[in-house]
Structure to design on (189 residues):
């Protein structure tokens, strides 16, 4: 028996996913969208995959662009992530864009980014999987990472873990482990 769509979504809501924005040029404007479906495929050649809703109005302009950038976000970029996640909100403020790679807009202040081209696409029902190959990669900032978990944006602060971690109860009592902060109604909790 196939998984019920809501149950399936609930499973993946519990899977922390890094948050990125894709930026591309479109007739002199910079467009973008937020996604958390980014995954590395291989290091040689440097390829990765991400998905876009097949009905997205942004997909045709992204596919028409000769190149794009995949920008890994830090917690300080949560407002941009939220804005570009909304259908119809795809314009990126000019003061947030750098032209590090000619013809490929890059997000100023991103934790890391890839300049890439789409190699191929795979139709996957209501989504399209895009396989891309990076031609430039750069890490830029050690800002607190931004993740999407339980349908919320969250920052993740690292904490040193012991070489041989204890049981979850021992970890809780000792205060060791990774701390997580949630984004709710404009405040961190």
């Amino acid at each position: 028996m196939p998984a019920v769509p809501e149950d399936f979504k609930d499973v993946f809501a519990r899977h922390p996913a890094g948050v990125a924005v894709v930026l591309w040029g479109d007739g002199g404007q910079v467009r973008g969208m937020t996604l958390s479906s980014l995954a590395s495929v291989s290091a040689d050649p440097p390829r990765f995959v991400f998905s876009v809703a097949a009905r997205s109005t942004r997909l045709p302009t992204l596919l028409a662009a000769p190149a794009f950038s995949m920008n890994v976000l830090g917690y300080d970029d949560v407002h941009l992530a939220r804005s570009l996640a909304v259908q119809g909100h795809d314009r990126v403020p000019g003061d947030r864009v750098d032209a590090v790679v000619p013809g490929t807009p890059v997000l100023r202040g991103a934790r890391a980014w890839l300049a890439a081209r789409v190699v191929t696409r795979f139709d996957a029902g209501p989504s399209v999987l895009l396989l891309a190959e990076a031609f430039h990669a750069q890490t830029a900032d050690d800002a607190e990472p931004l993740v999407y978990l339980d349908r919320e944006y969250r920052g993740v602060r690292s904490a040193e873990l012991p070489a041989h971690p204890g049981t979850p109860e021992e970890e809780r009592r000792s205060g060791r482990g990774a701390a997580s902060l949630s984004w709710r109604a404009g405040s961190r909790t």
Observations:
- Helices lie at 5-13, 59-64, 78-84, 168-174.
- Residues 181 and 187 are 10 Å apart (CA to CA).
